[in-house]
UniProtKB/TrEMBL annotation:
Similarity comment text for this entry: Belongs to the short-chain dehydrogenases/reductases (SDR) family.
Listed name of the protein: NAD(P)-dependent dehydrogenase (Short-subunit alcohol dehydrogenase family)
Keywords: Oxidoreductase
Segments passing through the bilayer: none
Secretion signal, residue range per the UniProt entry: none
GO molecular function: oxidoreductase activity
Domain of life the protein comes from: Bacteria
Amino acid sequence: MSGLLNGKNAVIYGGGGAIGAAVARVFVREGARVFIAGRTQAKLDAVARDIAAMGGAVETAQVDVLDQEAVEKHADEIAATAGGIDIALNAVSVMHDQGTLLADLSVEEFMRPIDGFLQGLFITSKAVARHMGGERPGVILTLSEPGSKLAVGGILGHGVSAAGKEAFTRLLAAELAPSNIRVIGIRPHAVVDAPAAGSYTKDLFKPLAAGAGQSVQELLEDGSMAQSTLLKRLPTLSEVAETAAFLASDRAGSITGTITNLTAGTLTD
């Protein structure tokens, strides 16, 4: 059966997380050969078992995206094994503060998401770009958040890092276009059905939920976050993963240098 990504080689950094794993499943379903990387081998193995139970397969590697030498070695190994890299997604999460205002925010907490997200994105993009493009079009997908455009208090580091990722996406798209490599951002809101609502998502939004007198799940599903969207709901993992597969496919071959808005109408541009 023909899939959107038949014959494509894809690497997903942060493949053990909720979004990375969801995208890996859809990429495999659509015919790609998928490599997932992350810092925690047990999480990668769990994703691999889940995909195997569905009749697919992924290849795993324990890699820290902030270790440039390790990332480049891993990308070189994939290219040597598979013959090149066609698609890359950085879905690595960096735990950071949300809710603390400037007066009480330390410079370390302000810089944590900026340093973590942007360094990881730079390192992974540089590593894979060397193995992309030419006769085989390449695609680099990035992830950001609505904080890139929201004017609200308490998300200084988060918002600046998100805006930085979106600027990085547009600028890199211009740089790599002559090499036949597209660079596209995906901007979902908090994902309501992420299993990581028991880990990263839960820890990230716990202070905001506590301030509203709600559980994290109540905040996401029924509270202000969902009600602030035009659709009165948050995006699902499936919607994010299916969008990533389309954008990575040749059907989206004229899309580059832009941010795909999956905020359910929290933002309208």
